[in-house]
Amino acid sequence: MDKSQPSPQSQTPHCSVRHPVDLSEVRSRRSQLLDVDKAQRMAAFFSCLGDPNRLRILSVLSQGDQCVCDLAAVVNMSESAVSHQLRTLRAHRIVGYRRQGRNVFYYLQDDHVANLYHEIAEHLDEPEDS
């Protein structure tokens, strides 16, 4: 480890002044704490979104419903690869589908998913703090 850099422990926030712990505040915050089961489901959801190809597919679906063949053409992947990614996205309820004749059209499951996608994309377009 480089001696000129502070150790990770020295960068950990801590109270510089000892103070009494407000137990009612601790209880209040604990009552609002994300439960373990939901935290695990959210982690799986975000893990699903951790794949660049899935995010590219979402970027196309954020513009409207698409069939697999059109999605494959837009993202420059095989239909088989796109179908595989769509199965994963469907398993996490990120996309849904509807049949129209012989075609299957995919769409973002609901406004929550669309809003999440747009908010993250917008956040990443913001200039970095100096």
Automatic annotation (TrEMBL):
Domain HTH arsR-type: 34-128
Pfam family, one: HTH_5
Keyword Phosphoprotein: no
PROSITE patterns the record matches: HTH_ARSR_1, HTH_ARSR_2
Top-level taxonomic group: Bacteria
UniProt keyword annotations, A-Z: DNA-binding, Transcription, Transcription regulation
Keyword presence, DNA-binding: yes
Entry protein name: Metalloregulator ArsR/SmtB family transcription factor
Organism (species): Phormidium yuhuli AB48
Lineage: Bacteria, Bacillati, Cyanobacteriota, Cyanophyceae, Oscillatoriophycideae
